[in-house]
Amino acid sequence: MSFFKALFSLFGDSKSKREEQVNPVALPQRISDKIAKEKIDPYQQAARDTLKLVNMPDEIKQKIVDSFADINLNERDIGKKISEIVIKDLEGVEWNWIEWDFWSKKCVELDLCPYNMPWPLPEKLDFEYERKKYSPDKAFNLCTLKEAKERLQAFPETVSMKKADVVEFLKLNTTAWHAVIDPHIEKIWNNKKHYEGATPNIVLKCLLDTIYRRGICLYNIRRGKKIRGIPKEEFSFTEDQKLFDIAKNDPATPWKKNYGHPVPGGDLFYSFDFPDFNK
Question: In this predicted structure, what is the pLDDT of residue 50?
């Protein structure tokens, strides 16, 4: 065997061995499977409770509930996986989620949204924000003198001006500057793809993600109660905590259950107090 062939063989074997290594902190498969099985009932209960607030054909609701028993609940992005299962069934079907209808309007009014809730409205061009990226001194890096004067037809005094004079004029006249720079901003905006707002498919994904998060909450509450723990809500994101408090103090909040976040996409987790241990 040549030196290089032996060297290649050595590193090749090492790579193979590395690929076979098991995550040292991973749970044994038997325990992982047991946890996934225990999650089925609370996740399905969360699905049934949430779907009571959804106007959708019963057979599709049932398919969603059943899906929580058909996939591995220890995997990531459960909401996306289930949306892929039911999305075709909803083609051409009119449906709505009462919680979404309530909170999407309220979140816009409050300008406050859970971290994992898609923003309801489409992205809009903010001229004021975009204008800050430019200055009249650089105007002729973006357009010719002829183009600038075409945009300044409302300002006849600029007709005979040279570039330097136009720049000084734009510095002193905000309306004129906007007339020159805004077409450039708009052209760049139109050439890019932008968020179109919460489409039905995006709302479906949020619905299923919300069920998943509420399922985690119910699963953990049940586990805590087995050892007489008293749950306390905790939050990873300030937005989620603020909206939780708002929802709990609003009698019109659609979600009435005593587990999970009451706002679509809202996330929380529980810490537990054990009064029996403190005696």
Answer: 98
- What does the CA dihedral 29, 31, 37, 41 come to, rounded to 10 degrees? -150
- pLDDT score, position 9: 42
Sequence-distant (≥ 6) Cβ neighbours of residue 79 within 8 angstroms: 205, 206, 207, 208, 209, 210, 211, 212
- Residues in the chain, pLDDT under 50: 1-20
* Distant-in-sequence contacts of 235-238, Cβ < 8 A, 24+ apart: 235/267, 235/268, 235/269, 236/115, 236/267, 236/269, 237/114, 237/115, 237/267
DSSP letter string over 51-84? Answer: HTTEES-HHHHHHHHHHHHHS-TTSS-HHHHHHH
Nearest to 254 by CA among 41, 113, 106: 106
Strand partners, 54: 97
DSSP codes joined into one string, 78-103:
HHHHHHHHHTGGGTT---EEHHHHHH
| Amino acid residing at 77 | D
End-to-end Cα distance, the chain: 73
**Closest CA relative to residue 90, chosen from 65, 54, 56:** 56
The answer to whether 99 and 254 have CB atoms below 8 angstroms apart is yes
Q: Please, which residues have CB within 8 angstroms of residue 273's CB and are 6 or more apart in sequence?
A: 229, 230, 232
What is the value of pTM for the model shown?
0.77
